[in-house]
Amino acid sequence: MIYRGSCHCKSVEFEIESDLSFIRQCNCSICIRKNAKMAIIAKENFQLLKGSESLSLYQFNKNIAKHYFCKKCGIYTHHNTRSDETKMGVNLGCIENIDPLSFVSELADGKKLS
């Protein structure tokens, strides 16, 4: 299924193709602070529709994972994972017409990677 999403201010908009069956929450030092549920998808199933200039990149530790945030509203929209370069995480709270609180998430033990 195709889902549309955006940051809070709509400066960044994207589409994903997913059945939303693989939902994770991570306990690494950044994810535990943002507390987002993430849809894990193949990178090719993500399309940035608008706002590449509005995205800020944050990296830490080994600088492998790439975490993207809107420069204007500060919302984390997506990231390229450290553990699997073919996958990415998309903030479930940014996806339109779903209730992210209704999804059960699996724990990603990112804490052990640091």
Give a description of the structure:
The protein is mostly beta strands. It has one domain: Metal Binding Protein, Guanine Nucleotide Exchange Factor, Chain A (Beta Complex), CATH 2.170.150.70. The protein has one helix and ten strands, in the order βββαβββββββ. The protein has one helix at 31-34; strands at 2-6, 13-17, 23-26, 38-42, 46-50, 55-58, 66-70, 76-80, 87-91, 106-108. A seven-stranded mixed sheet has the order 6-7-8-9-4-3-10. The radius of gyration is 13 Å and the shape is globular. The model has no long low-confidence stretch (mean pLDDT 93).
* CATH class category name: Mainly Beta
The portion of residues assigned to helices is: under 10%
Report low-confidence residues grouped into runs of 5 or more. none
Largest sheet: 7 strands, mixed
Distance between the termini: 34 Å
Q: What number of structural domains do the residues give?
A: 1
Give me the side-by-side strand order of the main sheet.
6-7-8-9-4-3-10
CATH topology: Metal Binding Protein, Guanine Nucleotide Exchange Factor, Chain A
Number of helices: 1
The CATH architecture can be named as Beta Complex
Average of pLDDT: 93
Residues in β-strands, percent: 35-45%
